[in-house]
From TrEMBL:
Gene transcribed to yield this protein: fabI
NCBIfam families: PRK06505.1
Top-level class of the enzyme under EC nomenclature: oxidoreductase
Organism superkingdom: Bacteria
One GO molecular-function entry: enoyl-[acyl-carrier-protein] reductase (NADH) activity
Catalysed reactions, semicolon-separated: a 2,3-saturated acyl-[ACP] + NAD(+) = a (2E)-enoyl-[ACP] + NADH + H(+)
Name of the protein in its database record: Enoyl-[acyl-carrier-protein] reductase [NADH]
Stated family: Belongs to the short-chain dehydrogenases/reductases (SDR) family. FabI subfamily.
Source species of the chain: Sinorhizobium garamanticum
Amino acid sequence: MNGLMNGKRGLIMGVANNHSIAWGISKALAAQGAKLAFTYQGEALGKRVKPLAAEVDSDFLLPCDVEDIASVDAVIAAIKERWGKLDFVVHAIGFSDKNELKGLYADTTRENFSRTMVISCFSFTEIAKRAAELMSEGGTMLTLTYGGSTRVMPNYNVMGVAKAALEASVRYLAADYGTRGIRVNAISAGPIRTLAGAGISDARAMLSWQQKNSPLRRTVTIDDVGNSALYLLSDLSRGVTGEIHYVDSGYNITSMPTLEALRT
Ligand code: NAD
């Protein structure tokens, strides 16, 4: 199928480099004709994002740190001025102090709990509220989550709690905006080697566990996530909202290690 996203304009938030999940999503959308705008967090990342944006024919780059709500407002204002509307938004943003992505969840500090929640969870609600104002003809929103939201994963700690709240936000936002023809979904991706992923202690062990124990016996790639995102952001999924869609080689359905893994 070609041209699924022809005529659609969307905002991608969360490309840091060519390993970012948001970059996998961007490639899949651009290949189907979408026009993209990108945000970047700080000038150092901006230098990396600019050539990537050029690869998908975009010169629309905007600085944004979601801790500074004025910068989110400026992004929305710039899109309104240049495009007048928005068809979709991708929120692929997460952060927590890496010193707390190890050890006990119980040791999470109040300061890092709040910061993690604001950046990794509440920013999606703040962005959704603003983006919806540019979606008078309907639209789609997508965020990224991880299975550590519903099951305990070693070291994921406060991020798991933030992702649980993010998934609940997806359902509440889907209910808020459904009557306006705006759909809100999340992809729950399996572990992938990225900048954010590397912040979690023993990330390598998690990747190897997933590879050995998921039904597909492999980890997922940013292109796997990109293709599923294309489905959720395009009209192919027009009857789907409030969904947490797993792209994890089926790991979430398992209840114990495979027998091969137990024997090795
Ligand atoms: P990444 O490091 O490439 O992307 C994370 C992005 O978050 C970066 O672009 C960073 O600039 C941005 N960010 C962090 N704090 C920000 C702030 N204050 N303001 C604006 N942007 C900010 O890593 P990724 O793995 O591609 O992460 C994207 C999303 O996918 C995250 O929500 C992450 O939790 C989620 N996720 C990742 C995995 C994985 O294994 N890598 C699995 C499931 C879900």
